[in-house]
Write a structure and sequence with these properties.
The structure is a homodimer.
Chain A (H helix, E strand, L loop, with lengths): L4 H5 L11 H11 L27 H11 L4 E2 L2 H6 L6 H9 L8 E3 L4 H14 L3 E4 L16 E4 L7 E5 L4 E4 L5 H10 L2 E2 L12 H7 L6 H4 L2 H4 E8 L2 E4 L12 H5 L8 E8 L1 E2 L6 E7 L2 H12 L8 E5 L1 H10 L6 H8 L8 E7 L3 H17 L3 E2 L3 H8 L8 H6 L2 E11 H16 L5 E10 L2 E11 L5 H18 L5
Parallel strand pairs in A: 2-4, 3-4
Antiparallel strand pairs in A: 1-2, 5-6, 6-10, 7-11, 8-9, 8-10, 12-14, 12-15, 13-14, 13-17, 16-18, 17-18
Helix pairs in contact in A: 3-6, 12-15, 18-19
């Protein structure tokens, strides 16, 4: 029976339990760790959940919620409240590990229908109670927290149905609480794909994708979530707003766009119509390249995006540290391939790894790949075949699961992203690295994912031993400094 | 010296002066017109402009505007006010022809700088004066009218500069008052295209494109204006809002999208950063097809958009009436080609004409064309080469200029569009045609332009003799019925 803080911040996925051998080696080397350091169980969080705050909502009001949704769908036990207090932001995990939950929701309600949501919102408005709609609780932008307590409205239990696949229009209508893999499997079986694969894919819901306005790993080809949403139905305290699934409209501003990214602040999304695409994995064209340095690699990325040759779906570039780290973790360090690349002038510590995948029609995917190969070659790259990209795709969601066992060993780790125009990319990249590396004993890796005609998204990942006893201020201080470094260098937040 | 109402509703373009021979023939045949009917000069509007309403703004306030922008930029003569009272909506033209201007602006101001706009807005807020920002005044959605009088803020005179082409980011920053052809020529000379070609291209401004949220003829490939805008600077009564030219962001909802389509109601756009693309007209791949009927043609369009083969840039389909009309106007009627098509089973009155243009990289454009040809062939089309599309492109903006000489001959004509999902397209098309054709002596043509994965935009064009003396109620009645027919059949407005 799961009743500990630990059971909240661990998804329960087996990939969270153990670090890959290569990662252990890296940590040992970087931070002079020994095997015993990995048994530290820092802030292990294995105490039973106990909240000091009782629910603030009066019994008479709670009973009204129970009348609306049934008492089995109105939860007020400590564990339910604690498990809805946070998302998966690094700071959230630290709080849970420390057993510190300052503002849990007073109640967790799992409504059974849109009608119930309407009634709940009406009651909350009348009683001045805050409502926070939540899906998979995988948010790293603190969108699911309940700073004013109130209701955490969990849509995953009942509002998780796939309502209709429209083969002709190439759309799917779903309820907000459906998880990514459930939707994708359903669509694949019918010859479609949703094309949206955020890092949180396995534990996030369509409603969360929309509310948090994310981009998936294949967004360079398929678009970000805002490009995929055709229609929404939203329950707001002022009434129901429903947009239609028109392929395009020009009636004043676009109402969809006001709800996409609103993090649940404007209403509760109860139905979403998404574009879907043909699922043709057999047509997928994969390509992997090694470049001599970041300059030539990013230049090549830019040229590819601006060439008028269509776009790859997955387009990813690792910086020299991430590339070296990947080689080490995968055991390619000092392999024949490694030595061969070195000999050819692709030096460790400078070389960058690029992954490309193109989907769609077979001839189309082949042509785009051919054109990309040509541009990449012009920029001095070495083509290393399909396999590295294929391997990367297989473990595409795994890295997120390293966070917990790393934290168990007292290592802080987080990934932060920014979007930046091409003409400012190398400048921002360099300066933000300088900031991140100004911290002692810190391993900083970065990569580009989600590439656009006019710029790209940069991701910075860092690992560093926690300052024990000061884990939170240490992290927040470093994190704020990182935000400042990004803003000072012209990146988006 | 232009001082008549007629000089306002005529652009002064020579294409407005005379109807093509083929159009004259069509009108004669359809409406039993004789040559003398074309000399009717119905509602010719050649009276001198005289406004009965004096400007309502007190002299002392006007003088403050003059202090801000210079007296030469604060216009209050009848002609300036009249020429800023309307856009180019059919009803607007009728009013101008009748010399009826109910609510002209009190003043027309042509500000010289953003600073002046700020000062003007501050003063207007203080004095409770309405402000309507305008560009090329080509709006057909009544966005430039001044129902409360006040200020018509004309941005075309001074705020019309191209500020910066960024070759690396592939963007251009402009002031709102720059006209389409000026921008396009400037970009072409530097190897780029803006890729946005609305029907009003020749007489519309970038600010207007954004405020009215339009789609261009090549939007199927390049995207609509909202897909092209990366950043905006907007002066609002509450302060300046500026978004950055990040290639993407996810900071809550997208502020750009709130101003795009706002028709100037939320503020005055003073700077726009647009995506631009490589200008490679030599790579353009053109294709034209004849289909046996609307069903097979639209089915083919849908399959093309959903095939994962990339998208054509221009993608246009004429219904059987428009196709027949085009054949007639171009003199192909009873030609050898006409007879050949007839013999092959592509019958007049049923056959549909499709135009396709693909831009970008040469091999890419060729491949997309090849794939489109294959899908079109599967749906029974007959490939008729590049020339018809090439010819169409040459006169792509001309049809709008027929409106004035047709009105001179007492013929009402307008084009109305709606977007619709694929599964509802034929239903809506049929029913709206039934409505439009329920009017006596009416020639109804329709076409598809702006095609999406999930549906398409349908355009209905009608020609019909005006009810003389009741031109306005007759038009409004017919037009309202059309709106109802579209809505009742599930189209967007």
């Amino acid at each position: 029976m799961k009743t500990t803080y630990r059971s909240i911040f661990k998804w329960g996925d087996k990939r969270e339990e153990k670090l890959e051998k290569g990662v252990v080696e890296l940590v040992k080397e970087q931070f002079q760790y020994t095997d015993t350091d990995f048994d530290k169980k820092i802030l292990y969080g294995n105490k039973e959940v106990r909240l000091s705050q009782k629910p603030k909502i009066p019994v008479i009001v709670r009973q009204q919620f129970e009348t609306i949704s049934g008492s089995e769908n109105v939860l007020r036990d400590d564990y339910s409240r604690a498990s809805h207090a946070f998302g998966k932001f690094y700071g959230d995990l630290l709080y849970l590990r420390k057993g510190e939950i300052a503002t849990p929701p007073d109640l967790v309600i799992t409504p059974r229908s849109e009608k119930e949501i309407e009634q709940i919102l009406t009651l909350c408005k009348q009683e001045n109670i805050a409502v926070t709609p939540v899906g998979g609780l995988s948010s790293v932008t603190r969108g699911v927290e309940t700073p004013h307590g109130g209701i955490s409205l969990d849509l995953t239990k009942h509002l998780n149905k796939i309502l209709k696949v429209n083969d002709v229009n190439s759309t799917v209508r779903v309820e907000p609480g459906v998880y990514g893999p459930v939707l994708e499997k359903y669509l694949n079986e019918r010859g479609f794909t949703c094309g949206h694969f955020p890092q949180s894919f396995e534990y996030s819901t369509v409603g969360g994708w929309v509310a948090a306005r994310g981009a998936g790993q294949a967004s360079t080809g398929y678009g970000k979530i805002e490009d995929l949403v055709l229609a929404l139905r939203v329950i707001t305290p002022a009434g129901i707003i429903e947009t239609k699934d028109f392929p395009a409209t020009a009636e004043a501003w676009d109402l969809n766009k006001i709800f996409i990214g609103s993090e649940g602040t404007l209403g509760v999304i109860t139905s979403i119509t998404l574009k879907i695409r043909k699922y043709q994995p057999e047509n997928r064209a994969l390509a992997s390249f090694v470049f001599k340095d970041c300059q030539s690699a990013t230049q090549s990325m830019r040229k590819i995006m601006q060439a008028g040759i269509g776009f790859p779906h997955l387009f990813r570039l690792s910086d020299p540290v991430e590339t070296t780290t990947a080689f080490k973790i995968k055991g390619f360090d000092n392999s024949l391939s490694d030595k061969f690349l070195e000999m050819k002038g692709y030096r460790q510590g400078e070389r960058c790894l690029m992954f490309v995948s193109i989907e769609g029609n077979k001839a189309y995917a082949r042509l785009v790949k051919k054109k990309i190969k040509r541009i990449a070659r012009k920029h001095g790259s070495f083509f290393i075949g399909a396999k590295p990209t294929k391997d990367w795709l297989k473990q595409r969601y795994d890295s997120a699961y390293m966070r917990d066992p790393l934290m168990d060993a007292g290592i802080m780790t987080d990934t932060v992203e920014t979007s930046v125009t091409w003409d400012n990319l190398l400048n921002l990249w360099t300066n933000v690295r300088v900031y991140l590396e100004s911290r002692e004993r810190t391993h900083v890796m970065s990569h580009i994912s989600h590439v656009y005609e006019n710029g790209a998204n940069l991701y910075f990942t860092f690992l560093s031993p926690m300052k024990q006893g000061e884990e939170m201020p240490d992290y927040l201080d470093y994190h704020h400094g990182l935000m400042d470094a990004i803003l000072d260098n012209g990146g988006s937040l």
